[in-house]
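Case 413 in the screening queue. Each case pairs one protein sequence with one candidate compound; here the compound is 2-acetamido-2-deoxy-beta-D-glucopyranose. For every case the pipeline is the same: read the inputs, emit a complex structure as tokens, and attach any notable structural observations.

Predict complex for case 413.
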Amino acid sequence: MVARNQHMITLSVVQFFVSLVFAVVFLAAVYMAGGLVTTSFDVINRAKEDGDVTLLFSGDDSECNLFSGKWVFDNKSYPLYKDRECEFMSDQLACNKFGRQDLSYQQWRWQPHYCDLPRFNATRLLERLRNKRMVFVGDSLNRGQWVSMVCLLDSSIHNPKMKFLNYINGSNLISFKAPGYNASIEFYWAPLLVESNSDDPVNHRLPERIIKSQSIEKHARVWTDADILVFNSYLWWRQPHIKVLWGSFEDKNGIYKEVEMLRSYELALKTWSEWLEIHVNRTKTRLFFMSMSPTHERAEEWGASNDQNCYGETDMIIKDGYTSPGTDPKMMRIVENSIDELKTRGLRVHILNITQLSEYRKEGHPSIYRKQWDSLSEEQLSNPSSYSDCIHWCLPGVPDVWNELLYAYIFQQ
Ligand SMILES: *[C@@H]1O[C@H](CO)[C@@H](O)[C@H](O)[C@H]1NC(C)=O
Ligand SMILES: *[C@@H]1O[C@H](CO)[C@@H](O)[C@H](O)[C@H]1NC(C)=O
Ligand SMILES: *[C@@H]1O[C@H](CO)[C@@H](O)[C@H](O)[C@H]1NC(C)=O
Ligand SMILES: *[C@@H]1O[C@H](CO)[C@@H](O)[C@H](O)[C@H]1NC(C)=O
Ligand SMILES: *[C@@H]1O[C@H](CO)[C@@H](O)[C@H](O)[C@H]1NC(C)=O
Ligand SMILES: *[C@@H]1O[C@H](CO)[C@@H](O)[C@H](O)[C@H]1NC(C)=O
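Case 413 output:
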């Protein structure tokens, strides 16, 4: 009985992954070309001592900005887990398993300029999550971060019976359970946060994007009571216009309006923040929003040949402060404005500003090293960059660092 259920879970999880791969790879982002001058970048090999390092920050306004720093090669402490040893790893992200041979992408530590990140201690985090629910809400980038978190925790739970996935076919929610701690670490699929025609966890590859900008309850009631909420929403918005629907998806007489993307993003975040303001228990729930995850789909942006992308990249971008012209700071401003507004109403949401640190990591994406769900044509095989995934991130890799930052905030008093 148990075995059969587990088999079903495995099948549906696979389908879930399949759909997510296509969903995001399918998105066409609009980019401008940009030049790039490279200067030297200080890379030192500094391994960490065991034990926690003091965390020298007392809030977002203090001198230490955890998001301003540099990558330091550290093959003594990294990777924090092995992809083949984590049974919850996604085949979409397990680059080494799917043939990637250069492994330095797994061995970089993020070093903030004026302070240190605490060392990630999975046991300590599980103890903090005892009797709690942490939910990641968003798209497949957020899902990758959830997989990373599950693998980070997995390595410290040695009894295989004390960890499992819970997933009901057709549901937007997938949960990792650690019964020894009564802890639940979950992912909820809502790529545009509000209700949309892309909400089906399996069938969401649709030619046009339609949102119901004022409706979030269907999703939010699933996660509102969580103890820790980690949101993201960015890539699915990357098109010039979004259709906004007044009425229901089933109703043939619903009214549609094409709205400029930034305006529709603003509308959706307004609905999201109003929901939080009214429904979230401020003494219980801690709120985080992951900033934009950059993509590396146009190699001319970092000075390489213009018909290439992240395929074949084995080094990061070394220009200090590099940002891709494809990363839209206007969207970041909209998130900041919504969150500042919430702050004036007494609700605190922390933005984890992972955009800049991820910008450097053009070598961190799966490119061709992941499970291919469709067989590839001769033409594709002769041109690997044509089917490279330069959006998601290999694990172990960049999202582990996002989780180390989240960890730092969770333990910040
Ligand atoms: C991790 O945390 C646990 C529980 O707080 C503690 O007992 C252990 O010593 C920590 N491990 C390290 C390497 O600091
Ligand atoms: C770490 O990298 C250095 C320099 O590349 C190398 O000499 C050393 O063998 C590596 N250590 C491990 C544990 O991989
Ligand atoms: C287990 O955790 C849930 C939250 O995920 C909580 O509601 C419940 O009370 C906990 N159970 C016990 C026995 O503490
Ligand atoms: C999951 O549900 C879909 C329809 O909603 C169905 O086609 C599929 O066979 C189901 N998968 C499993 C493993 O039950
Ligand atoms: C909010 O959460 C706190 C801590 O878990 C709890 O004591 C309190 O009853 C909750 N308030 C409401 C209105 O549910
Ligand atoms: C995040 O970092 C970028 C680049 O360093 C900066 O422009 C932006 O203002 C930051 N946003 C927040 C909310 O800190």
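Case 413 observations:
- Residues 2-31+87-410 form one domain.
- The CA atoms of residues 49 and 381 lie 45 Å apart.
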